[in-house]
Design a protein that fits this description.
Elements lengths: L5 E5 L4 H10 L4 E6 L9 E5 L5 H11 L3 E4 L6 H6 L1 H22 L2 E5 L23 H16 L4 E5 L1 E2 L9 H10 L4 E4 L3 E2 L2 E2 H13 L4 E5 L5 E2 H11 L7 E4 L1 H4 L14 H7 L6 H9 L8
Parallel strand pairs: 1-2, 1-4, 2-3, 4-5, 5-6, 6-11, 7-10, 8-13
Antiparallel strand pairs: 9-12
Helix pairs in contact: 2-4, 4-5, 8-11
């Protein structure tokens, strides 16, 4: 009988981390680390860990002996990182580079969750060979973290994706932000000039499983097969979840007066993903309809 794989997930209380744990737990020895927000996930041993505490992290990794470490933990609030660059660097860059070194020293596979925000957004349809041109502190940190992982751990896998879904706390994605706004009957601004390739977390975890099973390494883009605006995405959410579409209001990125500069088009080319997956990536509309038909796994 083959040994059951041990999967360790950082950021397990977040949207992606929690959904990954739920996906891997039934067939793996699954563990998860959270920073400040405790979470309970069936068949997953969760515990608090400060990923910037390298001594504690190393001791835990030696004890756990993971086969795979999926690194989701990050300071992901783009405007917060703009105002706290030093703290963001410690979390997003230093911790990631340390985990890469540990993966080499201890022999586990590192999967690092990066972001399409590493691109400047001037062209869109970015493939894995396109060079990052970060526009803000968050993106610059993710870019440097990617470079560190590539230099340190030859077999590591770096994922760029923009995913949506349900999270344990209900406040970790654009989708959940729309739910909150609609639930309160508030106007929902939708960017008409910001484009991306959103994929549901349900489809994301299946795609990632295929990449891990086929032992992919380097950079991989995971996303929908087409490009839509944030405005179109919100409209789909409202329609597919039977919410009030009249709440949606068009707005441009500049009109929002955000603290950090944002790329306008972070859409991803998913040709490499489709080859690995053995099927076409879903369109944004297909993914949303399928996602809307499934209840939240975190509902009480």
């Amino acid at each position: 009988m083959s040994k059951q794989r041990t999967v360790l997930i950082t950021g397990v209380s977040g949207l992606l981390g929690a959904n990954l744990a739920m996906y891997f737990a039934p067939n793996s020895n699954c563990l998860g680390w959270f920073a400040t927000n405790p979470v309970s996930i069936e068949n997953t041993a969760t515990g608090q860990m400060d990923v910037t505490d390298h001594t504690a992290v190393e001791e835990a990794l030696i004890r756990i002996k993971p086969d795979f470490l999926i690194h989701c933990a990050a300071a992901s609030d783009v405007d917060w990182t703009e105002d706290h660059p030093s703290q963001a660097r410690s979390i997003n860059e230093d911790a990631t580079a340390f985990l890469a070194r540990q993966s080499v020293a201890l022999g586990f596979k590192l999967v690092f969750i990066s972001s399409p925000f590493v691109f400047d957004g001037n062209s869109g349809n970015y493939d894995e060979l396109d060079q990052p041109v970060p526009l803000n502190v968050y993106a610059a940190g993710k870019t440097r973290a990617e470079q560190a992982v590539l230099q340190i751990a030859a077999d590591a896998l770096i994922i760029r994706a923009c995913f949506y879904g349900h999270s344990p706390r209900g406040n970790h994605s654009l989708l959940e932000w729309v739910f909150e706004k609609a639930g309160n009957g508030e106007a929902i601004p939708g960017f008409t000039d910001s484009y991306f390739s959103p994929i549901s977390v349900n489809d994301f975890v299946e795609a990632l499983e295929s990449a891990i099973t086929t032992d992919q390494y380097g950079i991989l883009h995971i996303g929908s097969s087409n490009v839509i605006s944030k405005y179109e995405f919100i409209r789909m959410v409202l329609q597919d979840f039977d919410l009030d579409t009249t709440l949606l209001k068009p707005i441009t990125v500049d009109e929002a007066r955000l603290n950090a500069n944002r790329p306008r088009d972070t859409s991803l080319n998913v040709t490499q993903l489709e080859t690995i997956w053995g099927r076409s990536a879903p369109t944004a509309a297909e993914g949303m309809k399928r996602f809307a038909s499934s209840p939240s796994p975190f509902s009480t």
